[in-house]
Each structure stands twice: as C-alpha cells, then as structure tokens.
C-alpha cells in the first residue's frame, strides 16, 4: 500500500543549488510524531552529499541541513527516487545508536533482517534468490558500521549503493574493509606513494588483475576525498573504483589520511 503524499516541499539545496522536490507522506508525519525529537528528516541523495529537511508532525519545515552526522533520536526518510539506482534492494532501513535511516516506496511487506547485536539492517528485496548473498554482504556492512559508529547520511547512502552492487558477487574477505572506508569516505583523503605507483605501473602489464589504466586512475585522484574519487555514473562503477583503490592500498601504493568532515 502506497502512503499518501500530504505535502510537497520544494527547495534549493544550499550545497549544490539543485532544486529539490521532497514528498512528505502520511507515514513520515506519523514517524515525526513518535520520534524522540518530534521531527523526521526527509532526505534527497545528491551524489557526494545529502540534503535533509526536517519536518514536524504537522509537516512544517523546521530547518534544512546538508551533511550531518546522525544523532540519537534522529529519523531520516530518504526520497524513494533513490531506489532507482539499485538492482536488488527495493527498500531498506538501517538503525543503530538510536538513529534510523530508511527508504521504502510504500509499506514494506517482506523484510529481510540482518543484525549484529545492536546495528540492524532491514531490506526488502526485488529478487528473493539473492537473500543468502544479501545476508552475507549485509553482515559485513554491519560489522563495518559497528566500527565506524557515526556516519553521515551521504556516507551511509553511498555504502548502501555498494551493498546493492555487491550482492550479485560472491562474498569477499575484503568486504568489511570496503564498507569501513565507504562509511568514512568523506573524511578520508587519498594518498599516493608516487615512487611505488611508478614501479607498479611498469609491472602492470604482467599482473593479471592490474592495468596501467587502473594505476593511472589511482594517481589521478591523489589528494582527493575518497567520496569524490569513487563517485561514478552507476553503483558498479563506484564499486570498481573503490575496489581498485583498496587493492592498491593492500600493496602500499595508496593510503588514507583522516581529515575533519
Ligand atoms: Zn545538493
């Protein structure tokens, strides 16, 4: 059952200037009324950042924010249009440390639950044949979330895109590391050891998984924030870029420096 839209908030994003139209639905107002803060955040994904508008139980605009670490008592609802980027996940909710972030096109029917003590991931899947793989990747996602603790909505949504694009692949021993860096992707700057990169570039034609193109890509994003370095036209490209950077990290060519958000 689709929830009725009661208000349409139109506003200009203070970060990128994009005009955004955010639907406030009946179920969001109910969520605001029962949340500890009396507010619900309605979010729109803008690639490297997220626009969040807070509304109260009456649907009144109570403030706009871009980039914000999720706080206890915070309920963020993402515009369902975000789901069009995804292949397997048809709706989701992540809750941890008293906050929750969710995106559903209507009232979810069957939810797959993955939990690790406190962090909880609930997913509605388009294809139940992917359930086992979704649980495995979802578990790595939660392991990373437990370590990182407090991501901002943009880092969290980027990580959900990675989760969705990973489900079609077999589980990987590097999954938790991948989510760990994506959940901090706005706070990490890519460092490249130029000497090591030059050496690797020379050997690249002889290494099966490597190409000079990949080494050149890593060198080209030197000094960038990780989120800007990996953003691409679709989730598979984002995943490929992040995995390239991580494989070079394991070989000592790339490192990360943590900076303030
Ligand atoms: Zn924006």
Describe this structure in words.
By secondary structure, the chain is α+β, with helices and mostly antiparallel strands. It folds into 2 domains: 5-182, no CATH class; 188-258. 34% of the residues lie in helices and 28% in strands. The chain has helices at 26-34, 131-148, 153-166, 175-182, 194-203, 212-220, 226-230, 235-250; strands spanning 5-12, 19-25, 39-45, 50-56, 61-66, 75-78, 89-96, 99-103, 112-115, 120-125, 188-192, 254-258. The longest helix is centred in the middle third of the chain and has 18 residues, at 131-148. It is globular, with a radius of gyration of 19 Å. The model has no long low-confidence stretch (mean pLDDT 91). Zinc ion binds at residues 13, 15-16, 18, 46, 49, 51.
The radius of gyration is 19 Å
Derived from helix and strand composition plus strand pairing, the structural class reads alpha+beta
Number of domains: 2
Number of strands: 12
Strand content: 25-35%
Biggest sheet layout: 8 strands, mixed
* Main β-sheet, spatial strand arrangement: 5-4-3-6-8-7-10-9
Helix content: 25-40%
Rounded to the nearest angstrom, the distance between the terminal CA atoms is 39 Å
Number of helix segments? Answer: 8
Molecular shape: globular
The pLDDT mean sits at: 91
The low-pLDDT segments are: none
- Elements, N to C (H/E): EEHEEEEEEEEHHHEHHHHE
Bound molecules: zinc ion
């Amino acid at each position: 059952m689709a929830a009725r839209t009661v208000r349409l908030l139109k506003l200009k994003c203070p970060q990128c200037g994009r005009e955004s139209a955010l639907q406030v639905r009946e179920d969001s107002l109910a969520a605001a009324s029962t949340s500890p803060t009396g507010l619900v955040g309605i979010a729109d994904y803008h690639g490297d950042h997220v626009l969040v508008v807070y509304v109260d139980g009456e649907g009144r605009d109570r403030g706009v924010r871009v980039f914000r670490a999720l706080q206890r008592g915070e309920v963020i609802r993402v515009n369902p249009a975000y789901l069009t980027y995804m292949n397997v996940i048809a709706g989701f909710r992540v809750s941890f440390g008293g906050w929750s972030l969710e995106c559903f096109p209507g009232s979810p029917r069957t939810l797959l639950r993955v939990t690790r003590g406190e962090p909880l991931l609930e997913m509605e899947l388009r294809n139940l044949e992917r359930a086992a793989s979704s649980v495995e990747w979802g578990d790595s996602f939660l392991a990373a979330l437990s370590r990182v603790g407090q991501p901002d909505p943009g880092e969290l949504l980027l990580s959900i895109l990675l989760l969705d694009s990973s489900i079609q692949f077999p589980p990987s021993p590097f999954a938790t590391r991948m989510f760990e860096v994506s959940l901090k992707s706005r706070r990490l700057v890519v460092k490249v050891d130029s000497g090591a990169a030059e050496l690797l570039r020379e050997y690249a034609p002889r290494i099966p998984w490597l190409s000079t193109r990949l080494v050149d890509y890593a060198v080209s994003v030197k000094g960038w924030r990780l989120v800007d370095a990996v953003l691409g036209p679709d989730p598979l490209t984002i995943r490929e870029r992040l995995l390239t950077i991580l494989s070079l990290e394991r070989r000592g060519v790339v490192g990360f420096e943590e900076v303030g958000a």
